[in-house]
User: What shape does this take?
Amino acid sequence: MRRSPGYRLQKLLINAGAYLVLAVFGFLIIFPFLFMFFTALKLPTDVFRSPPRLLPMSPQTVTIDGQEFPLYLVETEAGVERLARVARGAPVVIFASVEDPSQTFERAPREARPVGGFTNQQTALIDGQERKLWEIEEAGRTIRVFELSRANLGRFADPANPERTLDRSLNDARPLERLDPQIANYQRVLELQNIDRSLTNTMLVTILVVLGQVTTSVLGGYAFARLAFPGRDSLFLVYLGTIMIPFVVLIIPMYQLMVIIGWVDRISSLILPWIFTAYGTFLMRQFFLSIPKDLEEAALMDGASRLRILWQVFVPLAGPAIATQATFTFLYAWNSFVWPLVVINTGNFNNQVLTLSLMVLQGRAADSPNLVMAGTTIAVAVPLLIFVLAQRYFVEGIATTGIK
Amino acid sequence: MNRRLPWMISLLAAMSLVLAACGGAPAAQPTTAPAEPATAAPAPTAAPTAAPTAAPTAAAPTGEQITLRWRTRPDNQAEIDVYQTISNDLDAEFDNVTLVYEPGGSETASYQDVLKTELSAGTAPDVFWIPGTDIADFATRGLILNLRELADADSDYRDADFYPGPMFHLTFNPETGKTGETLWGLPRDVSTFVLYLNLDLLEQAGAPDPRELAREGKWDWDAFVETAVAVNNLGGDIKGFGMNAWWANPGLFINSAGGSFFNEERTACALDTDEAVEGVAFTSRLYNELKVAVPYGEDSEPPFLAGNVGMFLNGRWATPGMRSGARFNWDVVEVPAGPDGARSWLFWGAYVVNANTKHPQESWELIRALTRADVQGKISELGANIPSRVSDEAIDAFLTFTPPENNQAFINLLKNDPAVEGPLWAGSWPEFDKAMGDKITAVLNGDLSIADYRATVCDEANLAFK
Amino acid sequence: MATTTAQRPVPAERATLIARLGAAWQGLLAAGLALAAWGMSQATWAQRDGLRLVAVALIGLGALSSLLAAGLMLRRNRRGRLLGLALNYVLAIGCLLSLLGTLGVYTGLDEVANRFYPRAWLLIGVLAGFLIASSGDRFADAPRVQAAYHRTGRWVMIGSVVVLALSMGALQGLVTLLLGLRQPVALALLAGASLFGAAFWLLWRPQTARAFGAGERDAVAISGYLFIAPNLLGFLLFFAGPLLFSLYLSFTNSDGFRAEFVGPRNYATIFSLEVVRLESSSQRASEVLSPGFVELNRIGNLVIGARDRLFWIALWNTVVYCFWVTILSVVPALLIATILNSKIPGMTFFRAIYFIPSIAGVVGVAVIWKWLYNSNIGFLNYGINQVLGVINLLPGVELGPVNIPWLASQQTALASIIIMAAWQLLGFNTILFLAGLQGIPNDVYEAATIDGAGAWQRFRSITLPLLGPTTFFVVTTTLITTLQVFSEPFVMTPPPGGGPNNATLTSVLYLYQRGFNRFEQGYAAAVAWVLFLFIFAVTIVQFRMQRRYGEM
Assistant: This one.
């Protein structure tokens, strides 16, 4: 087929549009993680900022006479200079007289009184603009003024020549800052909450739950798909029904059960009850149903056992379905939250999992979001890494099962 | 063919063996103490039927050495470290007793919910801390031990050593409705509400210094509104005032207006009295008319720490966060005086003893030790609370724990008849809290008029009383 | 089951002997179980008397069925054999599991976690093996190279697992385990397990089968039961049992410590609704409602009152949440999936990006978003204002800066959580749609293109209908997960959760509050069951609709 230049242009435009849409959505999707990642690297004093800022920065400083001062870019007579701020800024307001607006006064804010108080401050129309009125003392008398501008004055000094100081508005001075990622935050959060232990616990729990669920649901799915036994279909319906039962219905009795068998606060309570899944069984059954019967019958003729047929014929074919189920289970086990919250004692650091640790961390380090985010980064990073490496299996597993 | 079916069983066995191979080892070695549910058996009468799983736990030698578990709700690692140190020190002091300290989950991790769950399962620690509002719930359910007899047998102990507010509730007898008859626990600490100030913002706004006004006795609601408006006038993201969304914050204004949550007997809702409504109306004015406050429901601490809020209402527990996060000059001041004066809250929490503990005497000794002056000093040095003992010594020590410079504000409010955080003996506090909180939130968010609030608030809140 | 060997009939006397032996064993078993049940009924279990009764009932049931099996066996009824098989199987597995418990295997998992902690890095070996194996896929045209890669990868994986197991002390573990068998309880359980196992094996043998005249159908059924057994046992123990218990709880006033049977009172409270007419709009609702009822809503002068107002508010919030999250996470997902399905380069990259929120976990994500939503210093308002600033550059547009109190306001709190949830589900749904799209053969599109169909037409008349089953699946899973929403409002709004004036109170959160915050576990169980019935009804409707749209 010959393609005209017009067609190619159209194609190019469509592609550009597609990329644009994808990029915009992609940005929205990824931004919270960028925020998390960068906040995790911030100093405590850099966390709360208005307006917010993404990158972790710390002020550049210079040492004068053994004392450290922050550096600013300040506009002076000599152009823009790098100066050290040696004293905190004192606020200053420039007022103009109501009677004669050309007459201006410089005052500290507290030297001016609002006319009628702050809550009901009187205003007047001056040059067509509504202005709030203030009273100040000038040469022994009280005069009415309005505000022209206000600034925070800072005292700046030349680092090369500390004798030379000047007062400038802090609003016009730009603080010099440098990128200063605090890797130590990770160190601190590990000490604070044993996140690494929670991480390995979560890994262990997830691995065992995934293995267990896949095993039981392959077996169960095969039985439902291929072996006629009395009561099979009604049992299957019951299974289907249970998929819809919210887990919360079970929290209370399950907890009581754990108490009876002594698994409260034990890792086993996070694993063993969760390796039986109606959902996975359902998924496997659906997949096994789509495998032609001839394959199995041929093997049966050869005298193969059911287990061998399952292992040698069905399981290899079920690769994508197993990958799908493993993905679902992985996400489920890795992120399960309510159950660990109830069954694992929050004081028992040895048996905590990530979700629980994060929750506790969020409370314990409520005033240090940098640490909370460092913990969250650790919690997110590992599944992310696994996902990036095994992306194909994650995604194509789902794709080829066709979710039927 | 069929012959191979037993593979099925072998597979099961193999699976279990793999597990066993890894897991069998520990049965021989006792794991770390906290994991062992020493109090796992639900009650002393538990029959031998307590399931086979209990068998392999390395049983602690009976007789001399006993283990006591205790728990608090720490807010940060520094706090955990202090409690751990205290636990270790006391452990060394106590013969025959091994103390195990468990840092409980924070408020966000449902500390009390988890505790109740464990109590119902029989896995809760012997001694634990709970907030003052929860005392009635735990006591009337029979979850905590009445320590009165143990206290009477202890010659060194006097109720009067602690602030009377908390002790009123800690000695309340729900059956007779009289106080002084029981002892549900001992208060760990107290705290008052103060206003945290961003001094830089106040100066920029030209507002007078609230600390000076307070000294001159002019720090009242009007001055407070003036200051909030002045700061808010700075514009942009700057807000004059901020507080967090829980009962104590609007409650402060209700109290200062002369109102109260409950009637005097604490048996019915009193939120619709003139005084109580005036407090809510004043708060609503800040939010809806003057619009000088951080939206109610939003955590005000981050914007305060970002330098965007002039005054932030909070308790002593916010101090450590200010110390580490604030990049501006800050201090504290008393809460402003309303029509009924500057009435702050007296917050408190208590150490209580699990009703099912096997070692009541040792538990009592533990909570006695935990509320000793020196131990309380160590805790309040952290900055998060004030000792619960009435003692000038303790207060003098507290005043030196700066910043904030103006620690005196906490103490002044403590002496000025604060309203006591209290449990609800005649009803369900969570239920009352929820009904009240919903209505007040609706008012402060501008979704409910004061008149409608007044007409409806007690309808639902009164359902909380039995 | 088909057999290749010829079936020799069993001589009659032998068959009778087998049947009698089997019946004798079952009879013995029935006697033993009955004895156990009697013993247990005499014992006292502090605080757990209900449990004891259940145990007695179960064991008694076992005894009865064993007796039944014995009877049936005597008459050489094949059902007797099936029943016997089931009983012996359950007992053998029960002994085995208790044996593992006695040996400390379950609680030993804690120690496994202890040992796994310093050695988790060994899993890198598994990862490396996996990478080696999958990098072999590039040599599809050289099968031998590929096979070599696969083999190496596999061995690296197996090797590192073995190293991990050994370094965690698997061998010592095995030894301790065997030594643990010296305990008398363990020995008894082992003996029990072997005994029942042997009985099972004897009953199961083809010879026995023939003696009872069991045909192939029985063989298939037995293998079916055996395959489903692990799943079914776990299901009964950890699902059905607790479920029934919660049903019982829902008819009590259990506060977690004491429980009294109160009949359907909890359900009555939940469903107590009444509608009354106000005389005038200024009249207070409390004047006309019955005592105990609180105003839920009003239409004109009609006031709807409820005993449990919060339940209905929570249910409504849940429905709203469910509706919007489904819309917001399904429609854009379809759009993105369609774009991703075009064969332009870089799609795998975007595909990966979109999937990230799904793997990040609700708790982590909620923690992040809580900060983004801060009205004063959060990025969301800041970002919106930046965008508004750009829009304001257009002549004649003047949009003021916004300052939305996202999580703090009754009007926006639920929306905030909806946005976050949709954001998180979007990628997952995209992948599902992508899977569906890739299942549509290309030539269908090509044919349509040749016929002159535009992109939109192709999407409408080919993609959408063919995507029906996928859409159904996506919508169903999204519905079911969103109806159970809990973590998002729990983490994002201050404890006990529920947000400003119950704006983010969802059903499950309400249930949690009643059950664990106020500890009214009986009532909470009733709420749970009502919620379950609701979800069930929604799903049924879903299935009905799906049937209309054809096979899934």
Remarks:
- Residues 310-548 of chain C form a domain with the MetI-like fold fold (CATH 1.10.3720.10).
- The first strand of chain C starts at residue 273 and ends at 277.
- Chain C has 23 helices and three strands.
